[in-house]
């Protein structure tokens, strides 16, 4: 029996090879193993680097060097040559040796673009792949192509070379630029003495990445059009880099995680709702089917980052909660949690709310997005909403206002009233929502004053009065006589009505402090919360798209001035009457769709045309905006 075992395995391997060969032929593809000499035939190789004898993962060996050798194997490295040949005898003998004592001899390969191609040892690779071995010892020569900035794959490969130089790892590959640098940042957090391993990077590969890879692929991850490295990076962005993979915990949440990855790779499924559902034909609010015509009150929880009495942002959302308590009191019961930690501990709070039986959880700060997503994967029966301009996920819908609209109107006021033509803008962080608001403010100022410039100072914190004041003071020193987002130094009625704690302020020249409070965008969160919850409660939505089906859409609620969710407050006494007329006219035009703040021609800081004449920026362009208009000055004076 032992004499025939190698041949029996050869026949099994050959069947796998023929199946793979025929599958590729039926697709109109070449059925044989890939050969490197054909790939690099027209490629300029600038360097041959001897990497010496190293252990390489078999999954990264995808071909042979010569075309002639490739004809013996299918693309999965299984043999396709008939039995009874010299090839079959040698393959079977290697199989016997592997079963008796293991294959001890190394192979010789070329590495090109982080894949390996066999020069010597094709049968050894074939046998080990048949038995699903992990790695083999190989003498590796790296072929480095000429750097080509027009070739994305080569740009990524050069990033890999830097990563590989530091870590020695070659089992990971990404499809996006910058990913190797991001992963290295996470790996720097690993304790070098994490285990008996002398190399923390090797520990990461063996005990963290490979464990993730096995669970991910077993759950169907190989069906997604991304690399395992791409999936792993998304995982640690949500959960952080684990020091060890808990197989039971990861296996239980992997299917939900894969749904998120599938949705992220199908951007066409993102549905940006820019108007309330009752004004849209055939709209379906994606939510829990169990929430349609509930038999009991809908339980809704709100998570606040700060205390209600000390934070305008929190107070504004609290006003929204009180509104729905009033208008939906017979159908909804609510609760709130204040001072939710602004770090990974937020997950613990959301978990308690989910365990307590709340049907819907609103997390009211962009900083909670990752913790919200993490909790939503663990509790798919709960509907989560996060207040941010980030891209939504299958399990988390995002809601925010089109803040650029009221910012554009406040920019008109600032441009009309400035005497120095230097306006200040206190920005929280560099993200598309903040950038679009700064740009809209600058465009509004430019509309009425072509000489107006907008200087930006950053707080790098979304709700700190101290940092807002510090940034405002820096802008005053830079000559700004009107500042957007200056914190209120004295109580103002708008604070009580809308929870606003910063406004567009003119500056007292002598004292260098806010002089007059001119205008500010305001939020009416109660309108949003009421409309969303009414659509969930409304029994006309008897056919609902199940949030967790394979056809679910990603929902981003992004409402503007026309809905009343965002608006503008300005001082009747301080703002000139003619300016008020212009603001009111343009507000009406924005509401009716007669005018769009981002109407071209619009140039960026380098003088490039970003929006062509008579065209308007799309929703997607605004939600991904990463450039500044030409009258914005962003310098490093705030140690950004």
UniProtKB/TrEMBL annotation:
Pfam families per the UniProt record, alphabetical: Bmp (PF02608)
Domain ABC transporter substrate-binding protein PnrA-like as annotated: residue spans: 298-585
CDD domains from the UniProt entry: PBP1_BMP-like
Protein name per the record: ABC transporter substrate-binding protein PnrA-like domain-containing protein
Keywords in alphabetical order: Signal
Tagged with keyword Transport: no
UniProt keyword annotation of Signal present: yes
